[in-house]
Amino acid sequence: MADPSSYRPKPGQIPDSPGVYRFRDEHRRVIYVGKAKSLRQRLANYFQDLTNLHPRTRTMVTTAASVEWTVVSTEVEALQLEYSWIKEFDPRFNVKYRDDKSYPYLAVTMNEEFPRVQVMRGHKRKGVRYFGPYAHAWAIRDTVDLLLRVFPVRTCSAGVFKNATRTGRPCLLGYIGKCSAPCVGRVDPEEHRELAEEFCDFMAGRTGTYLRRLEKRMTEAAEEMEYERAARLRDDIEALRKAMEKNAVVLADATDADLIAVAEDELEAAVQIFHVRGGRVRGQRGWVTDKVEEITTGALVEHALQQLYGEEKGDSVPKEVLVPALPDPVEPVQEWLADRRGSGVSLRIPQRGDKKALMETVQRNAQQALVLHKTKRASDLTTRSRALEEIAEALDLDSAPLRIECYDISHLQGDDVVASMVVFEDGLQRKSEYRRFQIKGFEGQDDVRSMHEVITRRFRRYLAEKEKTGEWVEDGHEDGLAGETTAGLRGDGTQAGFEADLETDGLRTDGLKNEDGRPKKFAYPPQLVVVDGGQPQVAAAKRALDELGIDDVAVCGLAKRLEEVWLPDEDDPVVLPRTSEGLYLLQRVRDEAHRFAITYQRTKRAKRFRSSPLDDVPGLGDTRKQALLKHFGSLKKLRSATIDQICEVPGIGRKTAETIAVALAQAAPAAPAVNTATGEIMEEEPGTMGSGGEPVTTGAPDERRGQET
Question: Which Pfam families does the record match to this protein (predicted)?
């Protein structure tokens, strides 16, 4: 690890002008390339106090042993030089997109005497018409196979063509009618070139005129009773329509555009590109990259543009490029794209209409690509094993943490405070072990106190199940455990206090194991507890374990902003490398806990908003609630109905009707009286109704306690 001050240039040595800079390590290898509008200001950011740097940047500057720069005239030149150096040096700390293969194009060699249709990769050649790119070469061959019966253009190699010319015998495609066989003189060069131009016109999207011409010829052949020719033309039309279905119109104005979408998290990013030509999606490609450096979405888009168009010229760069976020600044990038194309290029974010809808499709593809990449990465046994070993080494654990539990707190401005517990065993999710908690010990927002409560409750259950005299069992699972009681634990005065705690948290002691002899789920202790947060949350979790006398469970926290791993009683975090499989696993665990907590919190909030006075009527299920509201039309009319009128609803007896009337009366702010003689609900006082005709109520509905899943 080098000290950045040892190679820091003097401020006066760095020019205040646009340029490109390179960091080199002690072996003179380029490890990072960047560009700047002002080299002096940008490089000064790297040589500040290391504690103020992002961990990824800190690793880069301490790995480097020198820095050098090249001054350029404009930001566009800086962009071009940065791209060239990244391609040349392949720096380890720059964004590098995996799966950076050369994508195949459908090419027509119009520069030859007899143009040939083929699959091409790599650099574009002058005089060759290109269509695509396509995701797979077989997609090109499928399209070409459909079109050859209508446009029998040459597809053979130069060697096959020369051999057929020498022997006077065409290849198999010539015999079956999928090649016009110019090699043996069935068509002259002009006729074959005309076929190739019609093929190119069709691929470019000019399909309507040609189809109408074929349909007219088919009709004429049928009228002249040339049924075999009419049938061939019919089959040709069907083949062309099948080829068109493979490239459905997505933009009605025959737009040429590339749409770029980015799906990302703290560690990785997936880029998806749809190539639209003539209003049709002609190709799709995608990349995945590790985010080794701190980078914005706009910067990811800029790197994607460099990689996409760095080797392209002319029409290969479309008139319009649609992106999810613009690079900052955007002007140099637009100028660079215009230089690559030879004319203006529109680089923008779609706001409405078909282009915005198509961008949403591209975004979904990017998100799915990222999820698929993560799934493949997580399912690999070797990768998971390496991740667990890296975590054990980084946290100084005695062995790999085969069971990891992660906890997260979620709320909406202090309301509906809940927590989640997710479980990963051997690096894989164990969703059957997930649990959800309501925060019951206090009101309001306090993430640290909430974390202490949740850890205490979870490990109190673990201790209860270790007791040889009994254990708790689960009674309810609607949204978690509800209404459990305590049968009592044998013990002294201290144990009695422990029993009281168990009763508060919904435990009872009815038997030690399940029927199959396996311990209950909370009987399995984790080797590692991960909390979503930094030092305060970690300290709260450790304090809860200490109070329960548990000293064989490790604790750490993962702070989301900088992906730092915090340990109890440590002033400095553990910074795992950005490419570390251990960090990747911890992030997956933390993100899953966050997702699970958010889902539960939203569910609770939605239930609170949908609450009704009918919810408090014992034995009144959803079916009869709906029947009541359907019969009366609204809660207001139901409230004003008599008990006899309520009894008219199918399934509602008089006793239930009386209970409903009382519940509705008590729910109103100014509770109306019920005439016990007539069974009628007294008229409500003015001013007690809300603007929508419903009673104005305050406060949250009564909540069940002890709901954990």
Answer: GIY-YIG (PF01541), HHH_5 (PF14520), UVR (PF02151), UvrC_RNaseH (PF22920), UvrC_RNaseH_dom (PF08459)
Instruction: Report which secondary-structure segment, H or E, holds 472.
Output: none
Q: Which helix (H) or strand (E) holds 80?
A: helix 75-89
Find the radius of gyration of the CA atoms of the chain.
35
Query: If you average pLDDT over each of 48-57, 281-290, 343-352, which comes out highest?
Result: 343-352
| Residue 178 Rama label (left phi>0; alpha psi -120 to 50; beta) | alpha
d(CA 122, CA 492): 81
The H-or-E segment that residue 556 falls in is: strand 554-559
CA distance 330 to 321: 13
CATH no. of 257-376: 3.30.420
- Residue 196 CA to residue 75 CA, distance in Å, equals 43
The token pair that represents 528 in the structure block: 């590692």
Place of tokens 């993100």: 591
Q: Domain-by-domain residue ranges, the chain?
A: 4-94, 105-206, 207-247, 257-376, 381-468+512-606, 611-709
* Dihedral pair phi/psi, residue 370, rounded to 5°: -65, -45
Strand-pair partners of 5: none
Taking CA atoms, 540 is separated from 411, 527, 563, 593, in Å, by: 18, 18, 19, 18
The model's pTM is 0.44
**Angle at the Cα of 157 from the Cα atoms of 156 and 162, rounded to 5 degrees:** 95
Range with the poorest average pLDDT among 304-308, 390-394, 442-446: 442-446
Q: Which fold has domain 611-709?
A: DNA polymerase; domain 1 (1.10.150)
